[in-house]
Design goal:
about 425 residues, mainly alpha, about 75% helix, globular
Length: about 425
Amino acid sequence: MAGRRSVDRRARPPADALTVREQPTGWSTAAALALTAAAALGLARFGYALVLPDMREALGWSYAQSGALNTANAVGYLAGAIASPLAARRERRAFRTALLVIPIGLACSAATGALPALLALRVIVGAAGAVAFVLGAARVAQLARPRPDAAPLLLGLYTGGAGVGIALSAVTVTPALAGGADWRVGWLILAALAAGCCAIALNAGGVPGAADAPSTASTGLRALVPALLAYALFGAGYIAYMTFVVALLGDQGASAGATAAFWCLLGASAAASALAWRSRLGRTRAGHELTPVLAVAAVGAALPALADAGGSLAASAILFGGSFMAVVTAIALLIQRVVEPARRTAALAGATVAFAVGQCAGPIASGLTSDGAGLRAGLAVSAGLLVMAWTISMAQGARLQEVGAPIDAPEHREVLHHDRARTGNDGNPRASR
């Protein structure tokens, strides 16, 4: 009897190696934090695509001017990403402030049609969105520390929150504008939805140690150069698609119902991407996370540029929607695997900076192309950038081997040791004595 109890004590996992399932607040906290992505990305950034056609018609903008507003949002996002490691020193206050600024900035966008004022507001909302998103991602990464095999789903659940925001805007903003409401009403609806999402995220359960030390992650970032380049190109390519694909539907004569259905399908696919990619990303070796996801995103982005049939557009919504936020999951998972916990917030911020740099260029490049050669050509630019990102991402695995980067964080080894203690080195369960 004594021997049996001794074996049981040795087999019991340490307190900090409990699975996420054994932490009752883990999944509910991640789900609540996912509404950070819904507000910062799904509503504050992507919702602009739904308001854009009415704004462009009412204000007489060119496609380049239209794209400039999302470029301004990307510039703000870049500034917020750069500031995120410093904001992590006051993590709770910075997270709370960013979530308050997002709906206020969206509401203020309804108050003016002046391009300079709108550009300034997009910068402010973009900066707040970046801080909120990076700090929220760091919180969710912290939830995944005790059980690395849950990381793809937890991180995917968080980034998939953007799809929830997209779907919410599709079923509210589009019908309102189609019913004759002014474009300002679209901004107010986005602000109200964002306020609800931010309120829930603010009340998410506590995550012990969520704010990693804001020390430099230069060693980790040197090991991730191909992934960072690919992520920057992805930022340029995906935002061009998200900015102008709804305008393309309008040019092709799509009804308001068809546009709402497309946007809702895209959002639902993004929300479901955590489940769709969980197994694939979990099995992928460190350094190869981005490649399959970028390949699917490139195909999805290319379809509207190649054909205007309803089937191809639906396929585009499913493929692109089901992969573009999974790219964010993939880069976060890569960072979790190769960067030690104390440097992850800084590494996430560094990746977000690369992403934001791409975002700054994407809408302008696609807008100028669309002005000269049509929206379909502009979306072809988006697809081309994603193909380039996919090609570069294939070098990341070799880069990790070249620099000898660790791919097994301390908590991974601890859980692995615990699993072996229960199963034996051969992977078979130990027989009870």
